[in-house]
Structure formats: structure tokens, C-alpha cells
Amino acid sequence: MGVMRTAGRTDQWLNTDQDVDSRVARDTAIALRVRNLRRNEFRLRARHGDRPLEISANYLPLLERTTCSDRDGSEADIICWNGSPGEVWVWKVAHDDPSGRRLGAAALDRHIDAVRADPRAAGKRVVHGPASAFVPATDVGQQIGSPRNAVKVDTLEAGVEVYQVRRYRSRLAVPRANREVLEEAIELMEEVEDWERDHERRLCGLPHVHHLPLDWPGRPPRPIPR
To answer: Closest Cα partner for 31 from 199, 201, 155, 191?
Structure first.
């Protein structure tokens, strides 16, 4: 394996063992792609009147939310409600193996049908999220709760993002940038989930529970609001 460039930095994707999938790795991949969208917000906002991007992650279909059931992460993984005028973009995030790639692509249209039922999609086309939305095309960051694991996310096709996980054989080989990327991604995911929480409160009157383990082991203490 060679040297990978990501987010303007050189990431040593070296001295790692084979891919190991986990739910936490998938959550990390989603957070990394949300970070990517936020970092491209200025470019994307130019397309729709400079309005802030409205992003959902680990989306629950409208029917499940209004009945207040709890199947977090059961449907579309990332939604941008206003990435382009008159469109809602939907992505599925899947493990980068034959089964994950096949199931991710097959599930996407079903997830799009669920998103169409959401009032936020009224009057808009709900489409596969464009690959061009993610710049750079590849994201790499530390896996949540596992400092020696790195998650790499790429685009398989429109609407389907795929990830791999690698474990560095030595802590000394882990790039510092991996942790910095994850910390920023987690902060942005908190904002996304807070926005979604406000929407869910209006639907069923119950507080939203953060899907991501926001106080993962080894994370620096969060500042106390004043």
C-alpha cells in the first residue's frame, strides 16, 4: 500500500492489517462523510441561495419517528435536504466488501421511498446523492473509540459510499491527523443530530437520543457552556 493524500494532508495508510467491519466503524464512516459535506458547504450553498445545508444522519423513516419506535440507523445513512435546488440527496454507507456493496446499492431505492414521505421532501425530487458532493473523494479518520483503527471512505456510485477499516500495527505509525479528523467529525455530527432532534420533538414530543457515542474513550473533555 502506498501513501494516500486526503484533505490536503499526507496520510500514511501503511503498516495496517486487514479490514475488520463493525457498527462503530460504519458510524465513523457516516461522521466522516458528514464532515466532508460541511467542509464543502460554501461551494454547495452557492447552488441554492446561500442557505445553510440541512443534513440528517442515521435517518429514521417518518412512520417510525411518528410512532416513536426506536430503530436508529435502520434506513438512509445521510440525507442533504437542500444540496441543490429542488432536490434531496440520499446516501447509503456500506462496508466495502461484495456483500456490503451489493446490499447497499439494492437498499438505496427503498430508503429513497421512505425519505419521499418526509414533509421536508415535499415538492422536491429525492435522488441518489451525487459523488461530486464529496471533495476530496476519500476521507480517512480514526475509528470512534479505537485509536489504532483508521476508517477510509470512498464513493462506490451515486448514493452509495463504502468504507474499509485498517488497524495500525504500532501506535507510532498512527498519523495524528486521523484523530484530528475524527474530533471535528464528531463535533459536526452533534450539530446534525441536534437539528434532527428538534425536528423529531415536533413530530412525537420525545427527546432524541444521540446515536453516536459522543463521549467515546480517550476523547478530550467537552467544554462546559457558560
So the answer is: 191
CB atoms within 10 A of CB 8: 7
The angle that helices 176-204 and 23-39 make with each other, rounded to 10 degrees, is: 90
Please give the pLDDT value at position 47. Answer: 64
**For cell 440528517, what's the residue?**
56
pLDDT of residue 106: 83
pLDDT single digits (tens) 49-107: 667 888 988 775 444 444 444 343 346 889 999 888 899 999 999 999 888 888 888 88
Where do the structural domains in the chain lie, given as residue ranges? 4-204
What is the pLDDT at residue 177?
Answer: 92
Q: Which residues contact 112 (CB under 8 A, 6 or more apart)?
A: 76, 90, 126, 127, 128
CA atoms within 13 A of residue 13's CA, in its CB half-sphere = 21
| DSSP H/E element including 27 | helix 23-39
206 close to 200: Cβ distance less than 8 angstroms:
yes
In order of 26, 41, 81, 98, the CA distances from 103 in angstroms are 14, 29, 24, 9
Global pTM value: 0.77
> What's the grid cell of residue 142?
480514526
Q: How far, in Å, CA of 226 to CA of 223, rounded?
A: 9
pLDDT, mean of residues 138-165? 93
